[in-house]
Please model this.
Amino acid sequence: MRRYFSVAGGLAWRMLHTLVTKPLLFLPPMLMPVFFFTAFAGGLSAISNAPGFDYGPGYTSFIFAFVLCQSAAFGGVFSGFSIAADFQFGFGRRLLLATPHRSALIVGYGVVALIRAMVTLTVVTLIGLAVGMNINGGGLDVFGMYGLAAIINITGLLFAAGVALRFRSLQATPLMQVPVFLFLFLAPVYVPRELLGGWVHAVAPFNPATHVMETVRDLLAGGGTDYLATLGIVAALLAAVFVFMLRGLRQAEAAG
Model:
């Protein structure tokens, strides 16, 4: 176990050192949710006056739930880009040769994914509070909200890792990004589910992101929420992408 965590910690330290010394690798993923938050919260705030929109904390808090999910998910996806880059340029193969327990590599990437998401969410939260975001929930609600974000972050990482380990090339990055964008935007992003129209209204109830966003909004509002049901949904999603990642890891091992 000591060697296992030594490998994971060493890989995490290497990636963090790279991000600190080359901030251009870190800033774009952080600026994307900040851009979405400021654009949506400012440009679409009139939606709060639409008939049927009755979210108490206001539109800024409403859109923050989407930005939280996006920041968490893409914090994991961008770490998947690092996996693809490491394998494309040969470093990943050396890691496989030097590491008897290959899952330690995923743990190392996962630590960095969580740290990236923490930094981004901190910045977005501070911006939200500065522009008037209301948090009506208590400390336990806030803890539950960021707990869901952490699970979504690891889910995004495992999905991206599964893709990266299968293709082992940066050319696979669209396959990591596009499904996550669809996962997020086929949910009630701009308006409550009741105000959605067309086929998106029909699809949204079956999208796990819908339940996560609605739960985050309930937690922000301090209202009742079926937190355990949402937790069960994201846990099932996490298990599915974990299996997906393991199979990708075996393909990478077989490829040598």
Remarks:
- Residues 15 and 112 are 7 Å apart (CA to CA).
- The mean pLDDT is 88.
